[in-house]
Amino acid sequence: EVRGLSDYQVHTELLRQLQGYRSTNAAHRRGSDATKAFEKLSGGVTSRRDVLVSVLESATALLEYLHALVI
User: Fold this and answer.
1) Closest by alpha carbon to 58, among 9, 22, 10?
2) 25-63, pLDDT tens digit by residue?
3) N or C: which end of the chain has fewer CB within 10 A?
4) CA gap 69, 27 in Å, rounded
5) DSSP secondary structure string for all residues of 6-71
């Protein structure tokens, strides 16, 4: 629990998954690790478009969460 907050884990997990995908998807490292990172990020969704929608929705929720903290 950080500063009395206990619901931040879902947001930090999104950031960890995005960073994991970014770092394993570099052109010189692309391979099975990048595929695994994408699968983790996608959460079982198979369409890349749907994955993008899901990531953007999660990122929007993160921004709203951060906004609520500073207001």
Assistant:
1) 10
2) 775 566 777 778 888 888 888 888 998 898 999 999 999
3) C
4) 37
5) ---HHHHHHHHHHHHHHHH-STTT-SHHHHHHHHHHHTT---HHHHHHHHHHHHHHHHHHHHHHH-
Do 17 and 40 meet the contact criterion of CB atoms below 8 Å apart?
Answer: yes
| Rounded CA separation 10/58 (Å) | 9
- Judge whether 53 and 5 are in contact, CB under 8 Å: no
What pTM did the predictor assign? 0.72
b/e per residue 18-47 (b: at least 16 CB within 10 A)? eebbeebbeeeeeeeebeebbeebbeeeee
